């Protein structure tokens, strides 16, 4: 399983890039999963719905399913946030896992960097950034990938992963 991060400052276009990378992997016959780390709390449920009421009543897990999809909600209830490794074990088998967030995790990452946002590049401080995807030319010792050409980024990730298999 290829595990690859997409890193960058908030608003840099990480989610948009991931959205464009997934069809590129799928076109190569690869299944893709995504792990997104949210820095702030979130809730996919709505007050008043049965599943929300079950969680509010104290259920640790609520699994909802239909003929289209299923979702498992797990309430931490004060327990520590699971590690990336623990979350990877929860995923169904797949070929590629793209990770948004988990900046410090020891997995290779492509940084989405837009100088127009006025933020410093992450690669200078993060040893796990192995390439930079940008919309303008940059001065970087790392491979520079064209942000608006997702197929080239997909190919970079596949090539990099095949060279660094453990």
From TrEMBL:
Domain Molybdopterin-guanine dinucleotide biosynthesis protein B (MobB) residues, every copy: 3-135
Superkingdom of this protein's organism: Bacteria
Residues in the signal sequence: none
A Pfam family per the record: MobB
SUPFAM superfamilies on file: P-loop containing nucleoside triphosphate hydrolases (SSF52540)
NCBIfam families tied to this protein: mobB
Protein name: Molybdopterin-guanine dinucleotide biosynthesis protein B
Organism of this sequence: Aromatoleum evansii
Lineage of producing organism: Bacteria, Pseudomonadati, Pseudomonadota, Betaproteobacteria, Rhodocyclales
Gene that encodes the chain: mobB
């Amino acid at each position: 399983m290829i595990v690859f991060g997409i890193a960058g400052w908030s608003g840099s276009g990480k989610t948009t890039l991931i959205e464009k990378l997934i069809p590129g992997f799928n076109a190569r016959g690869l299944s893709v999963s995504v792990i997104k780390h949210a820095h702030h709390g979130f809730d996919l449920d709505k007050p008043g719905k049965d599943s929300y009421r079950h969680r509010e009543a104290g259920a640790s897990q609520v699994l909802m399913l239909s003929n289209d999809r299923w979702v498992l909600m797990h309430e931490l209830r004060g327990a520590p946030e699971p590690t990336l490794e623990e979350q990877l074990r929860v995923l169904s088998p797949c070929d590629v896992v793209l990770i948004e967030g988990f900046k410090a995790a020891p997995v290779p990452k492509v940084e989405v960097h837009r100088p127009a946002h006025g933020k410093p590049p992450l690669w200078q401080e993060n040893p796990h950034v192995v390439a930079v995807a940008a919309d303008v030319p940059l001065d970087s010792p790392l491979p520079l990938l064209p942000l608006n050409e997702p197929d080239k980024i997909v190919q970079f990730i596949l090539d990099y992963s095949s060279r660094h298999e453990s």
